[in-house]
User: Fold this.
Amino acid sequence: MNRDAMRVRLEEADRVWDVAIIGGGATGLGCAVDAASRGYDVLLLERSDFAKGTSSRSTKLVHGGVRYLQQGNFSLVLEALRERGLLQRNAPHLVSNLPFVVPNYEWWESPFYGVGLKLYDMMAGELGFGASRVLSEAETRERLPTIETEGLRGGVIYHDGQFDDARLAIALAQTAADQGATVINYAHVSGLLKDDDLIVGVEVEDVESGAIHRPKARVVINATGAFSDGVRRMDSADAQSIIQPSRGVHIVLERAFLPGSDAIMVPHTDDGRVVFMIPWNEHVVIGTTDTPVDTIPMEPIPSDEEIDWLLETSGHYLTRNPRRADVRATFAGIRPLVKSGGEDHTAALSRDHTVNVSKSGLVTIAGGKWTTYRKMAEDTIDCAMVIAQLPERPCGTRELHLHGHTPEAEPDADAVFAVYGSDGPALQRLIEERPGLAEPLHPDFDYVAAQVVWAVRHEMARTVEDVLARRLRVLFLDTRASIAMAPAVAALMAVELGCDSAWERQQVEALRAVAEPLLVT
Assistant:
């Protein structure tokens, strides 16, 4: 992917796109892949970086949703389990099997969760990740060496999927580009173009150059997640809100708190929420809370109360109680839950998605979750195809391998460049050509300089934050380490982008401005 080449296409004044998509998160990128793979001419515009928002701030799970099984939402669970299996087949370099243990401290928990998770297995069918089973107390302690043993009766193990959310978003952008789509980050849609009250295109500002473009399109899709209502009000000032935003918060600890290969799932805390403790990238991610919010910032920040709640709750299940000083990173994401009647807190709202079409023809896709992005995109493009009277073409993404797919059954999860899949050998060749690029960026991480160069050349990274937050995941693994790495990353990027030392200083300060509010003291 090359932004300059993409931008040239945007400047073609006479071009009429079949589909214009606003939003470069999971949903928008999924729509771009679907539409382009059907042969439509696709333009995707993202005002910041791909997956800048919620799509890079998830719990890193590709899952059916045990919570929704408890709620009786079997259709959502069935769909999510099917999509989980398809995603693992189509992106094995980014999606892997993760065993979860539900520790049991009450006599009824083992049979209760054991039966429920057997149903979970049955619903997954041939796309299942592994069979669940009841664990003895000794087996539970063996699998979870740091589990709180006082009152422990045993556990239940089941299997779900884990992934790197921002890396999957980049793979989707690359897949869309491979299929012929034009995808552009740092392109802010500031208005909708209309003719006789029907939408015929968008007004977009190139954030980097300040240039204004007005590309025409047969249909415009609003895939902006938590910001969906803002785009709908560009279309109609009195559009009713359909989004109930909820903030999910995570803390990241060192690996010693959960040293095994299994995750912990607490299905029901004292206030009814679910907590996950997940090994990820040699760290432990703990989340998440569901907190209703009224405002939707671009940079959501966990509150002290949320951090303390996660620390206290996780301490109930670990032999070593984590403290604020143990927190290496925090991150929060705004979940775009679709409003429905009667629920008084967002933990009760479903992740079901909805496709809405306005009188002017704006197609809005809202709700859903990362796991079901492909089905959301299929439903959206099916609708857009009708609205725009495009040639009818079936969806083919069920079997479409994502960029980087490797023919092997499963890549080596320990390989340094595993997340790049089939692009890994090219990264190795880059290092062979310039041995200095094998230099680590930080003593605590395996990330090397070549990955920064690759991110600029092939993944449309434009800022230091793009690299440290989303191409590499350091901002969300160890915030202080990301601040320390920023100058070296800026220097490497400046050479690739042809920028000067003033740009380097500005980028380091910009990264610091994003990172420092996330530090826990």
